[in-house]
Design brief:
The structure holds 2 protein chains of 2 kinds.
Chain A: E1 4-7, E2 10-13, E3 19-25, E4 31-37, E5 44-50, E6 53-56, E7 64-67, E8 73-78, E9 87-94, E10 106-107, E11 111-115
Parallel strand pairs in A: 2-11
Antiparallel strand pairs in A: 1-3, 3-8, 4-5, 4-9, 5-6, 7-8, 9-10, 9-11
Chain B: E1 4-6, E2 11-14, E3 19-25, E4 32-38, E5 44-50, E6 55-57, E7 60-65, E8 70-75, E9 84-91, E10 97-99, E11 103-108
Parallel strand pairs in B: 2-11
Antiparallel strand pairs in B: 1-3, 3-8, 4-5, 4-9, 6-7, 7-8, 9-10, 9-11
Classes of the chains: A mainly beta, B mainly beta.
């Protein structure tokens, strides 16, 4: 089945130790998004790629970077994780940039990051 | 003011009850609207899109009032499996979705 896959599902890292989260998709969608969701909060968009074009949200800390080597894969790199970066990280895709009620996003299962 | 606001709840209802959630959005230029469902520690999943004319999918009815910048979701004949957090989501026209913090629903036997 076509889907959005995230690995690992659970990641534990140490304070300050770089970590990379992975997302892959078999939907052949042009747009891939990374969200951060903390407990009882709304998902917060960090950045997205439209094809190879990277779009960073204004309030995303420099500590968060992303790479998209090809259509199928997108990575989230956290260069120096702090305790406040512990959260669920959600990857999502959409076929095209969103326009209209027929366009929406498909989410992966998320990676839950713990920072010790 | 938040871009998308929802009552966080929780809404505690018995099985079979009818429950309604409301959501307001601040950007009058917003283009499209959705309700997502999120189970505990899982990813959000699209429940339904919301159209100006209103739309219904089984026990679920969504309404949009553009003049009041207001969206609603009505669930009839609640089931235990409806227990989840319901996220109001708005496409503000900048090619991204803005999520509300969600309304938590607990359906009890």
């Amino acid at each position: 089945d076509a889907m959005v896959i995230q690995n690992p599902r659970y990641q534990v890292t140490q304070f300050g130790k770089p970590v990379t989260l992975s997302c892959s998709q078999t939907l052949n969608h042009n747009v891939m998004y990374w969200y951060q969701q903390k407990s009882s909060q709304a998902p917060k968009l960090l950045f997205h790629y439209y094809d190879k074009d990277f779009n960073n949200e204004a309030d995303t800390p420099d500590n968060f970077q992303s790479r998209r080597p090809n259509t199928s894969f997108c990575f989230l790199d956290i260069r120096s994780p702090g305790l406040g970066d512990a959260a669920m990280y959600l990857c999502a895709t959409s076929r095209e940039p969103l326009a209209g009620n027929t366009d929406t996003q498909y989410f992966g299962p998320g990676t839950r990051l713990t920072v010790l | 003011r938040k871009e998308v606001e929802q009552d966080p709840g929780p809404f505690n209802v018995p099985e079979g009850a009818t429950v309604a959630f409301n959501c307001t959005y601040s950007n009058s230029a917003s283009q499209s609207f959705f309700w997502y469902r999120q189970d505990c520690r899982k990813e959000p999943k699209l429940l339904m899109s919301v159209y100006s004319s209103g739309n219904e999918d089984g026990r679920f009815t969504a309404q949009l009032n553009r003049a009041s910048q207001y969206i609603s979701l009505l669930i009839r004949d609640s089931k235990l499996s409806d227990s989840a957090t319901y996220l109001c989501v708005v496409n503000t026209g900048f090619q991204k979705l803005v999520f509300g913090t969600g309304t938590r629903l607990l359906v009890s036997p």
